[in-house]
Write a structure and sequence with these properties.
The complex is a heterotetramer of chains A (292), B (273), C (271) and D (469). With 271 residues, chain C is mainly alpha-helical. Chain C has ten helices and two strands; from the N terminus they run H-H-H-E-H-H-E-H-H-H-H-H. In chain C, 75% of the residues lie in helices and 2% in strands. With 469 residues, chain D is of the alpha/beta class. The chains are: A alpha/beta (292), B mainly alpha (273), C mainly alpha (271), D alpha/beta (469).
């Protein structure tokens, strides 16, 4: 027995490389879902949206740049599709300069995938056409995000008299009677920068709506204190957070694909570390026995 | 995508695989990629430094849009000084006057060390000291109830404080690590090791994504070669597949060669033994 | 003069920059920016030394036929081609004799290498003549071909298709693959080094293992592992970093002061 | 007074114009809609107690504004969503902007190398002269307030804000240039969600900006630098007088000597990697002093030394250092010119080349000293693969875990800076280590005092060490 473990201890590292390549490529190409460990911070966002009655409005702020796309785009896809499948309406805004183009593309992509029937968590949802003005309203970009957030607290029409496509907000059916945050069930800010602080201070701080955040991995740690103080009701961090949401919504996408590779690569590394240690202890014991 | 671009893309995949082959061992493909990238990147930086460094920082200052009169006509003629100092660096080409090049080097070192002192004092010492002094012990057992794993609780801040002090004690040079001092220093090095371990473990994820990106690039190339991209390629022809199989052939031949070599050298070693 | 002047210069410039930090006035800022421009410009002029060193090492390798000398041709070709591309751009849609031009230029370079490397005088002469002919052809093309032109003062060369292709399809793939090798090296380093040899190594091992399992759903108490790894990153890691930062700060200032005051002189040559 | 009111109204009209131009979308908002909102929002109370003064501790060209927020901001009608900052500018700034764009165009034409037949050089000079003349008149024009100028929007800030720093450019040819020693006037408008409904404040001014000669915010830094400098000088003096200084052994540094000996025995070279730093990094300078000691030993032992470098100036200095180390060791004849050479200035291309050297030349020892980034593990793992003994030292915190894991000996942080003193065993250099220890002791004591002060609420103590910028 000992000899196998001891062999493991002195394994040529190229076997590790080979195994890692095989596992990564396999996990990249394979199309199965892995269980994702769900943290409370993400679950509370999902539960909140899941419990909303059809017709309620969710405000999604897409405040990231293309360089944070890999981490935050999957969140957008998962949340928006979840909302639409639940027959919720969505208001989008994009307060970062390069945001509108990405948001527009995301809206079109998700609308396409909404056309087919799909089953989520055992419930079949019929495919349907997503209509601008009925299912969603995209406000677009305006500079001075702090002022825009405050202005929308009075009336969405003040900073955004027209939506991104140039239609006056009042001619959109879903915006009838929707004045400000009071008519919105919650705000979800997906951000890779300082706009988050404005949402917390000027938005939630002044108007008291329920706020949830989706942030890049490096930013996440700084915003935990707001969970403790109750200023935000949920927090998603990086690819991991996106994968958690996808898994909750039973809608595996890019984040779960990425996490599959990550999980198996990490497992390979942990496996080798453990085997190396077992080998090490085995050889130590033998040494001791030989000495005796 | 036209065929030429595809050929370039194929070359990109070739050098990608050549670089990965380093994991197996040093081999002609890796040597080729290595030497190529050294030359190309050196040339690239010459060009970048010329266009984005020398031209705006020197030529335009001296000439100010007027090439033919050079600095005689410039609003900032003093920029000739760094140019002369820069040229003094070239005395290194001569054996006799190489010592002159020490003047610009000395100025460079003087300038940069001078800048470093107050800047380091402010960011590395004063600010960190202030942050350590103002650690708060409120919410000692965690925000909203007992929670040992709350990183912002007073208890965690106390641990940070003790960790910082003991790690600083570890760095004492002029006192032997003995007695209580040694024990505190031990606590310091444990803190360092836990911190290092955690940040090592944390980095693994980012490194794996780098590899996934490379897989993605090779995968994209395969998709272009087989015309299975989302939007079909109007310029697609069978030549794409010819290139694809050519590349596969090169890889397979190399792998077979390596395997044959491996076993023949093994059998040789056995016969010699 | 030879020995002392450099240290005097270090003292003067160092002291000036040290004091400048506390003077926000425009005039002091002007000097600060001017000096920073010095360092940039000196650095660019020094690049000539670097390129010369790279060139010389490669040429010597070819000349002496050291192991792997053939690859030095690849380095030299890459270097010269990249520089040539960065200064030229075609004027219209056609390339004219451009490709012929840079290929001839490379051949000329190769011929010159052969002149240096060849020991046989007869063949040396032959290569010399060949290189002269190639040089003449290259120069002739660059003078008479109007489909492309040199751009030294404007950065049009950066938009040269070939320059971009070399960057996009050679530099980027190799460099990002080098970076991606880290995925493997981090695995092998962890495997090799994370052995519970002593208490220190064990702490390193357990902290790393814990953080690596932070999103692993199959281990017992997975939820707490995730929380604990966040705690590790924000508490012991922060404490370690802060202590190291303050230590480094003291080291940097002490070294810089020693350099400025001339106590530490090992960084500068003598003689 | 009447005149003042008149300008008040004028300013209001201007700011309306400003808002109209600031409107981004081409389609005007639904007019009926606007009416309903306008009716719902009464004009808010203006900001009070507006002050303007020169921004302290800066190079000038900047004014700080302070005010008490409107009574309707967060209280009262709660209708204020933000403030608009206005400054008064003479009309000639328009012609200056016009000239600036013309200068830019001509310059672009010159650098574009387009031959237009016009004497562009002459043109740019006349334009610049015209601009300079206007610049001279600018101060006078500002003094002419309120004649011949208008209020212009500077910035918008969200509600709750009570200070604003109008940060101008100091470049004369740049947009947003604020002249020093010139009378400037400011006004702050309380803004409601409806862009039409807003209340301007009283005008504040004249105020002038100018640069300072000493930055009072940096006093703690100056004091600590001086104290530390004195401490170092004191211990260096003490060491010079011959006082014995004890230093504890550090594993990584002791290993350097053994490693060189091992390389000699094996007849293999030593690889010294200076990292990616330039000469402006103090870590690289520390690495040079270690290189000097290593090169001296290498020269004595007659081993080969390989120093591939990333930066051409680092290469020049390293060549100098190694050469003089060989001189010092009395082995100038064995110094090889190309033992220190340049590779390339690209991070991973450099790594590719150094990795190649490691696998082909199989150095007995690899020493990594200086600044290292992501390449740390690439180098150290390849070195371990090649079977070399590895010693590393860096001040990049993020890379230390990788060096610790992959190298045999690692100098953590400050130890890198201590290493040259250790290797040389020169008492003067050891003196500065003693000074560093005292400084660390001071930091520990101050931290403990500070935390006690924080707990007791004596913020004046901690604030003394607070550096804001």
């Amino acid at each position: 027995m000992n000899s196998i473990f001891e062999k493991f201890m002195k394994l040529d590292r190229r076997w590790i490389f080979l195994l890692l390549v095989i596992i990564c490529v396999w996990a990249y190409k394979a199309k199965f879902t892995i269980p994702i460990l769900i943290e409370d911070e993400t679950r509370s966002i999902y539960d909140f949206i899941d419990s909303l009655p059809p017709g309620d409005i969710v405000f999604i702020a897409i405040d990231y740049d293309p360089n944070n796309l890999a981490e935050l785009h999957p969140m957008t896809y998962a949340i928006v599709e979840h909302c639409w499948r639940k027959n919720l309406k969505v208001i989008f805004s994009a307060l970062s300069q390069n945001g509108p183009g990405m948001a527009d593309q995301a809206i079109r992509d998700i609308s396409d995938s909404m056309k087919v029937d799909k089953e989520y968590n055992g419930v079949l949802y019929k495919g349907r056409e997503i209509k601008n003005g009925v299912d969603y309203c995209f406000l677009g970009y305006k500079p001075y995000y702090g002022l825009v957030i405050l202005g929308m607290g009075q009336n969405f029409r003040l900073p955004f008299p027209n939506d991104y496509y140039g239609t006056p907000l009042d001619s959109l059916p879903m915006m009838k009677g929707v004045i400000n945050y009071d008519q919105v069930a919650c705000v979800i800010d997906l951000s890779g920068g300082s706009i988050t602080d404005a949402w917390i201070a000027f938005g939630q701080g002044k108007f008291g709506f329920p706020l949830a955040l989706g942030l890049t991995g490096v930013m996440t740690a700084q915003y935990y204190p707001y969970l403790g103080s109750g200023q935000i009701f949920g927090l998603m961090g990086g690819l991991l957070g996106a994968a958690e949401y996808e898994s909750l919504a039973d809608n595996p996408g890019r984040a779960i694909d990425g996490m599959r590779v990550q999980l198996f690569a990490h497992l390979v590394i942990i496996f080798f570390i453990i085997m190396g240690n077992i080998g090490y202890f085995a050889s130590q014991r033998r040494k001791k026995r030989e000495e005796v | 995508m036209d065929f030429t671009t595809f050929l370039w893309m194929t070359f990109g995949v070739f050098v990608t695989l050549a670089t990965f082959s380093f994991l197996y061992k040093d081999n002609p493909f890796y040597k080729f990629a290595e030497h190529l990238v050294v030359g190309v990147s050196a040339g690239y930086f010459v060009i970048i430094l010329w266009h984005n460094g020398l031209v705006p920082n020197l030529f335009q200052k001296l000439a100010d849009g007027d090439w033919y009169y050079l600095w005689l006509n410039s609003s900032e003629p003093w920029y000739i000084v760094p140019a002369i100092l820069g040229m003094l660096m070239w005395t290194r080409f001569s054996r006799e006057y190489a010592w002159v090049s020490r003047w610009p080097m000395a100025m460079y070192i003087g300038i940069s060390t001078g800048i470093a002192i107050p800047l380091t004092m402010s960011t590395y010492i004063n600010k960190q000291l202030y942050a350590t002094m103002t650690l708060s012990f409120d919410n000692f057992w965690g925000h909203g109830g007992f929670n040992l794993l709350d990183p912002y609780s007073g208890l965690s801040n106390l641990i940070i404080f003790v960790g910082v002090i003991s790690a600083l004690i570890y760095f004492f040079f002029s006192k032997a690590h003995e007695g209580w001092f040694g024990r505190v220093a031990d606590l310091g090095i444990w803190t360092l090791m836990i911190g290092f371990g955690a940040s090592f473990g944390y980095t693994v994820m980012a490194r794996i994504s780098l590899f996934v990106n490379r897989i993605q690039d090779v995968d994209d190339w395969g998709k272009v070669a087989w015309n299975s991209t989302v939007e079909p390629n109007p310029n697609y022809s069978n030549w794409f597949l010819v290139v694809f199989w050519g590349m596969v052939l090169i890889i397979v031949v190399y792998i077979i060669k390596e395997i044959v070599q491996h076993f023949s050298s093994k059998s040789k070693a056995q016969t010699q033994a | 003069m030879k020995r002392e002047l450099p240290f005097v210069l270090v003292f003067i410039f160092g002291m000036f920059m040290l004091l400048q930090y506390f003077v926000p006035h425009e005039k002091s800022e002007w000097v600060y920016e001017f000096f920073l421009a010095w360092t940039i410009i000196i650095g660019i002029f020094a690049l000539a030394l670097g390129i010369w060193s790279l060139f010389k090492v490669s040429v010597d390798k070819i000349k002496m036929h050291r192991p792997g000398w053939g690859y030095s041709y690849v380095t030299l070709a890459g270097l010269f081609v990249m520089i040539a591309f960065g200064f030229t751009k075609r004027n219209g849609d056609a390339w004219g004799l451009y490709h012929l031009w840079w290929i001839l230029g490379l051949l000329c370079l190769g011929a010159i290498m052969q002149v240096r490397a060849e020991t046989n005088t007869g063949r040396k002469k032959m290569y010399f003549v060949v290189s002269l002919v190639l040089l003449a052809a290259t120069v002739a093309i660059s003078i008479f071909d109007n489909t492309w032109s040199f751009h030294f003062y404007t950065s049009e060369g950066l938009e040269n298709t070939l320059f971009r292709n070399f960057f996009d399809y050679i530099m980027i793939p190799i460099l990002s693959t080098m970076f991606a090798l880290l995925a493997f090296f981090i695995a092998s380093a962890a495997y090799r080094a994370f052995r519970a040899r002593n208490l220190m190594a064990t702490l390193l091992l357990f902290a790393a293992l814990l953080v690596m399992s932070r999103f692993n759903p199959w281990i017992p108490g997975a939820e707490y592992v995730a929380k604990a790894s966040t705690w590790l990153m924000n508490v012991p890691n922060l404490a370690a970093q802060r202590a190291i930062v303050m230590g480094i700060g003291l080291g940097v200032i002490a070294t810089a002061l020693k350099v400025i005051l001339g106590i530490e002189r090992g960084y500068m040559g003598k003689g | 007074m009447a005149l003042y009111k008149w300008f008040f109204v004028l300013g209001f009209i201007f700011c309306l114009c400003g808002m109209a131009t600031a409107q981004e979308s081409g389609v005007p908002p639904d007019s009926a809609n606007i009416d309903t909102i306008s009716q719902s929002i009464p004009p808010p109370a203006p900001v009070t107690d507006l002050q303007a003064f020169d921004t302290r501790n800066d190079h000038g060209h900047s004014i700080t504004l302070k005010w008490k927020k409107s009574a309707d901001d967060g209280a009262g009608n709660n209708s204020v969503i933000g403030y608009e900052i206005y400054t008064w500018e003479p009309n000639m700034v328009d012609s200056m902007a016009q000239l600036r764009s013309e200068i830019d165009q001509v310059r672009a034409a010159i650098y574009g190398g387009k031959k237009t037949g016009e004497d562009l050089k002459k043109k740019i000079r006349t334009l610049k002269d015209q601009y300079d003349i206007l610049l001279e008149q600018l101060t006078v024009a500002h003094a002419g307030y309120p004649e011949g100028g208008e209020w212009r929007l500077v910035d918008k800030v969200p509600a709750g804000t009570e200070t604003y720093v109008h940060l101008g450019s100091k470049e004369k040819l740049a947009e947003g240039y604020i002249p020093d020693y010139t009378d400037l006037y400011y006004r702050v408008d309380a803004l409601t969600a409806d862009s039409v409904v807003k209340t301007p404040s009283v005008v504040v001014g004249p105020v002038q900006c100018y640069g300072q000669w000493f930055n009072t915010e940096q006093v703690p830094v100056l004091i600590t630098v001086i104290l530390f400098g004195v401490l170092i000088l004191y211990f260096v003096m003490l060491a010079r007088k011959g006082k014995e200084i004890y230093v504890r052994p550090i594993g990584g540094i002791e290993a350097v000597d053994d490693a060189i000996g091992r390389a000699t025995e094996m007849g293999k070279p030593i690889l010294y990697v200076l990292g990616l730093g330039s000469v402006s990094d103090v870590a690289t300078i520390a690495a040079f002093t270690i290189l000097q000691r290593v090169a001296k030993k290498v020269a004595e032992y007659q081993t080969d030394l390989i120093v591939p470098t990333y930066d051409p100036i680092v290469m020049s200095v390293a060549q100098d250092v190694v050469k003089s180390a060989y001189y010092d060791a009395g082995r100038a004849d064995t110094y090889k010119e190309d033992s220190v050479f340049f590779v390339t200035q690209s991070q991973f291309a450099y790594v590719a080349a150094v990795n190649g050297i490691m696998l082909r030349d199989l150095p007995a020892t690899n020493v990594y000293m200086g600044k290292f980034y992501a390449e740390s593990l690439l180098l150290a793992e390849t070195g371990a693969l090649a079977g070399s003994i590895q010693i590393s030292g860096t001040d990049e915190i993020a890379q230390m875990p990788f060096f610790i894991v992959a190298c045999d000996y690692t100098l953590i942080g400050e130890e890198l800076y201590a290493a040259s003193a250790y290797l040389g065993r020169e008492p003067i250099l050891l003196g500065s280590l003693k000074a560093q220890d005292y400084a660390k002791a001071a930091i520990i004591i101050l931290s403990i005092l500070g935390i006690i002060a924080t707990v007791l609420g004596f913020t004046w103590f901690t604030e003394f060490f607070h550096v804001t910028s």
